[in-house]
Specification:
The complex is a heterodimer of chains A (247) and B (305). Chain A is built from 11 helices and no strands. Chain A has one domain. Chain A has 247 residues and is mostly helical. In chain B, strands 5-6-7-3-8-9 form a 6-stranded mixed β-sheet, with helices on both faces. A 4-stranded antiparallel β-sheet of chain B has the order 11-12-10-13, covered by helices on one side. Chain B is elongated.
């Protein structure tokens, strides 16, 4: 297994598009935090809103790690290097597990850097502008940790989608359009049902609220479980297809 | 030793590989020959268990490919030189394979040196010529110092110097007792590199024989004859079952009888002969002749009652 993980890590960091994604996934959230922290006006902002400023960029970073997850498998099919990969290691479930671990670990590191720097820089700037960046009790730590975990989960969702669809462009489009368009529309009309949709549920992990209206949203814990299960199901289905199909 | 037993692969209604059985012994270069689209590449993917056969099985030294813990140390494969990520450099391309196969990084440098790519090792593969990609593919195949090599069109894109090089390399590797199985759609190229041939057409086995036997069996031979009394000689030869293709009044290509018969007949009749030379079709023509049977059968089958 360690051999498979090393091999996947070498492949991930030796393709230029992957490196660009990694840098963007960390840099865009930080840049957005800086921009917002410098320009926001304190009027009308609740504590939750203010804290949300340092997390809003993470959404973009998470989607970018999702795209990375798609590429980790999609590029292999696109350039047919999947045949080189499976010739070197015919144990396809091991290869898929190694890819999942590498993507998830990369997501945690990139998400950690993005979130931590966003928080530290955002805090420094907002405090110097006489605003406070603080949430009640455990909510603050949960929102920050949840944001980091979502980077890893988005990566796994991307990997699963990429394995199922194989066509990189299609998988990326789905990954971007589904949460923003489809889930938002459904939730707008049917909030009771919409709260169970995977990306909505997952976003509860980094919610800045500490109380939840059970009619409209899941708790962070329940939401996290739903999104994690969603990611695992996609991964399992994707892996099963990769194992079954001709390479 | 590669053994394929009854390999069959169907894509929809197309039978790409049809009950293919053959053996590739160690210690020599075995050529896998067939026209484009005859199922060579599919067969090779079936050997490596990249594609799932609809029937049959393939083994290396009695073991299936998937049973190897680190296949690169047993079987080296080059399926297509294009299988590389364009922005990844040659070194990292090999390193990823080496890591998956638990091979030390030193093997990457050795493999690069073996194929002459050391100087371009850090350049993205996207900028490589087809010849350089072939060398990278060969380096991948040789990485684990395997006892068996499966190479799909390895000479494709190489210049004459490169073909000479790969020929010497493969002969050398076979001399060490390794099992070498390489495909080509060009018999002339194969005749230079292989000792033995496995020939397929339309996914079916046509021949499993030495290059010489294959050529003897499928090459057409005739005798070029020139004589001032060609008409009389021709008539005598035709009585002995020969067919003549006339080339002017005093020359003809005589088919169906050996050169000795032509000479004997001429001497018997006291006819002067100006030219008497045995001819044979080229390797390429023999190959086309050999594979045509399979194609005709398939093409003709639906019209038969």
């Amino acid at each position: 297994m360690t051999d498979a993980i090393r091999s996947e890590w070498i492949k991930l960091r030796s393709a230029r598009s992957n490196l660009v994604l990694l840098i963007l996934a960390a840099a865009v959230p930080i840049a957005l935090t800086l921009l917002l922290a410098f320009t926001v006006q304190p009027e009308d902002l609740t504590a939750e809103d203010t804290f949300g400023l340092v997390l809003v960029g993470d959404y973009i970073g998470q989607v970018l790690i999702g795209v990375l997850g798609v590429l980790v498998i999609g590029q292999e099919y696109r350039h047919t290097t999947i045949r080189v990969t499976f010739t070197a290691d015919p144990n396809r479930s091991r290869v898929m597990a190694a890819k999942a671990l590498v993507v998830a670990a990369t997501g945690l590191v990139v998400g950690g850097v993005a979130t931590l720097l966003s928080y530290v820089l955002g805090n420094a700037i907002l405090t110097s502008r006489d605003m406070e960046l603080v949430l009640d009790g455990s909510t603050q730590l949960r929102a920050l940790a949840g944001a980091v975990i979502l980077f890893a989960l988005y990566g796994l969702v991307g990997l699963g989608l990429g394995a199922i669809i194989r066509a990189t462009a299609g998988a990326i489009t789905l990954l971007v359009v589904w949460p923003v368009v489809v889930e938002s529309i459904i939730s707008g009309f049917f909030p009771k049902f919409g709260r169970w949709l995977p990306f909505n549920a997952g976003s509860q992990l980094m919610s800045t609220s500490s109380t939840f209206d059970a009619e409209e949203a899941l708790t962070p814990r329940a939401g996290g479980v739903v999104f994690t299960l969603f990611a695992l199901v996609l991964l399992l289905v994707g892996s099963a297809l990769v194992i079954r199909r001709d390479a | 030793m590669i053994e394929a037993k009854g390999l069959t692969k169907r894509y929809g209604s197309v039978l790409a590989v049809d009950d293919l059985t053959f053996t590739v012994p160690p210690g020599r270069v075995t050529g896998f020959l067939g026209p484009n689209g005859s199922g060579k590449s599919t067969t090779m993917r079936l050997l490596l268990q990249l594609d799932r056969p609809n029937g049959g099985e393939a083994t290396f030294k009695g073991q299936s490919y998937r049973s190897f813990k680190h296949p690169a140390t047993q079987v080296g494969a080059l399926l297509d030189a294009a299988y590389a990520h364009p922005s990844r450099n040659a070194y990292n391309h090999l390193w990823a394979v080496a890591a998956a196969s638990k091979l030390p990084r030193a093997r990457v440098d050795e493999a690069l040196a073996m194929v002459g790519l050391t100087e371009v090792a850090k350049r993205p593969v996207g900028g490589f010529s087809l010849g350089m990609r072939q060398r990278l593919g060969l380096a991948t195949a040789l990485l684990g110092d395997p006892h068996t090599l499966v190479l799909d069109e390895p000479a494709n894109g190489l210049d004459p110097e490169g073909i000479q090089w790969i020929r010497q390399l493969l002969t050398y590797l076979a001399g060490q007792g390794r099992c070498i199985f390489l495909s080509s759609h060009l018999l002339s190229e194969m005749a230079l590199m292989a000792d033995h041939l496995v020939v397929i057409g339309q996914g079916r086995l046509i021949a499993d024989s030495s290059v010489e036997d294959f050529v003897t069996k499928y090459a057409r031979t005739w005798v070029r004859v020139r004589s001032p009394r060609m008409a009389a000689l021709g008539a005598a030869l035709e009585r002995q079952g020969a067919t003549l293709v006339w080339d002017g009044p005093d020359g003809a290509d005589v088919r169906g009888v050996p050169a000795a018969t032509v000479g004997d007949t001429a001497a018997h009749l006291g006819i002067v002969v100006h030219e008497l030379s045995p001819q044979s079709s080229t390797l390429e023509e023999a190959f086309l002749e050999g594979t045509r049977a399979a194609q005709d059968f398939t093409a003709g089958a639906p019209t038969e009652p």
